[in-house]
Amino acid sequence: MSTPRAETPRRIPPSGSSPSRTQTVAATSPTSPPEAATVATDTYSLQAQIDQLAQQFDWLKARLRHSQKLATLGTTAAMTAHELNNMLTPVVAYCRDALDRNDPELMRLALSKTLDRAAAMRQMIDRVVGLARQSDTVIRAVKVRQVVEEAIGCLGRDLGKDGIQLNLQIDEQLTVRANENQLLQVLLNLVSNARQAMLGRRGRLSVDAAPTAQGQVQINVRDTGCGIPAEHLDAVFDPFFSTKTNAEKPDQRGLGLGLSISRDIIEEFGGRIEVASQLDVGSTFTVTLPAPD
Fold it and tell me: How many CB atoms lie within 10 A of CB 258?
């Protein structure tokens, strides 16, 4: 009896067996990198967003400066209106007295006084209008004394009426490299702060300027006012920091933007602004600017 022939066993591939040769080659190939076009698109989109944010920041910064300028203009206008009223009162009294007496000589004197006061009032109004006017941003050689005198004139008030003595020590020909209108805004803020620090007490406002050995120009605005507490010195240039927000009179209030914006303006000119102060003795703000080439 013949023995049955054994069948050759067949190999059954295990579960999850290897794919075909073609599939194996595909599976063992390195992973493809991200598409270059996608990376470039994402980079462009991110840069566009950054550029847009930078534009918005510049716009907000310009608006902030404009707000401070309007605040300064409002303070100046309030002081100017007060001074105009003071100047008109004696003029009206002179004219009425001359008419009541029917005295030609007194009328002539009244007209002379009227013309004199009208010229002074027109100059005060021109300064306020000049502050409100949009100006260029050109940086050029600017005469320091001329801008300081204009800043003091923009206060719209004779400092002597507040018991403040004015002392200027600036050479007529001394110049700095700056934008005239923006430097005026800085100096007006400094002399206005100095005046406010001395209200109610006799004092002296001194502004001096001189070249330095490093080819720069230092402008010092000094007052003998109430001074700044030591714990506030590090914060005076911070935005919205002010100790005058609750003052009753409009010319004594502050938004806390003046010194912060002044620092930004001076730094844009390539300069710096610093403060030294002692309580009940006074303060000195020093502006250092490059001299013209």
Answer: 24
Please answer whether residues 232 and 243 qualify as being in contact, where contact means their C-beta atoms are separated by less than 8 angstroms.
yes
Interhelix angle 180-198/36-101, rounded to 10 degrees, is: 60
In tens, the pLDDT along 248-277 reads 555 455 545 678 888 989 999 999 999 999
The phi-psi region of residue 271 (left if phi > 0; otherwise alpha if psi is between -120 and 50; otherwise beta) is beta
- Tell me the pairing of strands 272-278 and 203-211: unpaired
User: How many other C-beta atoms are found inside a 10 Å radius of the C-beta of residue 237?
Assistant: 17
pLDDT tens per residue, range 76-127: 666 667 667 767 777 787 788 788 888 888 888 888 878 877 877 787 777 6
User: Domain 64-131 - what CATH class?
Assistant: mainly alpha
- Rounded to the nearest integer, the mean pLDDT of the chain is 78
277 burial via Cβ count (<10 Å: 0-12, 13-18, 19+): buried
Contacts of 218 (CB under 8 A, 6+ apart): 209, 210, 211, 212, 286, 287, 288
Look up residue 230 and give its amino acid.
Answer: A
> Phi and psi at residue 218, in whole multiples of 5°?
-105, 130
Pairing status of strand 203-211 against strand 164-169:
parallel
CATH 3.40.50.300 describes domain 140-290:
no
pLDDT of 137: 78
